[in-house]
Amino acid sequence: MGMYDYLILPEPIKCKKCGYEIKLIQTKRFARLLKEYELGDLTNKYIISAIFEEHWSCDECDEIVNIYIIIYKGIIIGIVDNKEKAVNLLDNFNINDLIELYYQLIFKKSKISYRFNQLIKSIEQLIRFSKLSNAEQTKIINDKNNYEFYLIKNYIDKKFNIITTLTKIINQI
Ligand SMILES: [Zn+2]
User: Fold this and answer.
1) Mean pLDDT of successive 10-residue stretches along the chain, which has 173 residues
2) How much is the pTM?
3) 54 CA to middle of ligand 1, Å?
4) Burial letters for 7-29: b for 16+ Cβ neighbours within 10 Å, e otherwise?
5) Contact between 84 and 73 (Cβ < 8 Å)
6) 86 with 121, same domain?
7) Is 89 part of any domain?
């Protein structure tokens, strides 16, 4: 049984003393099962709307940083470092804003999942390519119409190295 959960901040919150960017905090407000929570997540069905104030000690200098978690109908709709901002957000938030928030999150996630799929396919092609003989590899490199290795064909040459090739692909996707 865990003692807390993790909360991923949508935007880093800067420590006012040392400037360190806090990206993740621990919180005991939710299930306490070492789960990861982020913007848009449903927290606890008994929570209607609330603002939780966390006093997080900076990972770098131990300065206490106030972080406000804004909950609307049990859903995390914001995490900010300013109480007034938090109260304002919750007071003015409505169902349309929730739909807007979810559209943005879905759009972001579909972009991430597209990149992830491209990466997996590239890795599969790289592995398949690296298992071929030198002669077969040369044949593929010289074949402009080869579609079997379409995701990696711009990155493979005679001095093929799986790590450097993969690094180039990751930087491109
Ligand atoms: Zn600090």
Assistant:
1) 88 96 95 92 83 96 96 96 97 96 94 92 91 91 87 80 82 80
2) 0.74
3) 15
4) bebeeebebeeeebebeebebeb
5) no
6) no
7) yes
Tokens of 141: 């490199």
**Residue 6, C-beta contacts closer than 8 angstroms, at least 6 positions apart:** 24, 25, 26, 27, 34, 35, 36, 37
User: Are 17 and 89 part of one and the same domain?
Assistant: yes
Task: For residue 99, tell me if it sits in a domain.
Answer: no
Spacing, Cα 40 to ligand 1 middle (Å)? 27
pLDDT in tens, 74-116: 999 999 999 999 999 999 999 999 999 999 999 999 999 999 9
Look up the domain containing 125 and give its range: 114-172
> Which segments of the chain does DSSP mark as H helices, in order?
83-92, 95-130, 134-142, 162-172
Cα separation, 136 vs 153, whole angstroms: 14
- What is the distance between the alpha carbons of residues 98 and 135, in angstroms, rounded to a whole number? 57
What is the distance in A from the centroid of ligand 1 to the CA of 49?
30
